[in-house]
Amino acid sequence: MKRRDLLNHLSQQGCQFVREGSEHSIWENPIKKRRTSVPRHREIPIFTVTRICKQLGISIPSGN
Asked: How far is 53 from 22, CA to CA, in rounded Å?
């Protein structure tokens, strides 16, 4: 999955960007008070996308 598509999905699910790390972006779900890191790669493997969504407590993108 393309990184920009994942970031759009996170935003649509109510997640918010927190900060940039050295190799990752930090995102949080303010409703469930969960945080996770999103790697800065153009393509993110589907198993990583699934892990990120589960850590934030949101749905997995249906396009995959």
From this structure: 21
Gyration radius of the chain's alpha carbons: 11
Tokens at 48, concatenated: 């990583």
pLDDT in tens, 35-45: 999 999 999 99
Task: Please tell me the distance from the alpha carbon of residue 22 to that of residue 40, in angstroms, as a whole number.
Answer: 9
Task: For residue 62, name the pLDDT band (cuts at 50, 70, 90).
Answer: confident
How far is residue 46's CA from residue 17's CA, in Å, rounded to a whole number? 20
Mean pLDDT value across the chain: 94
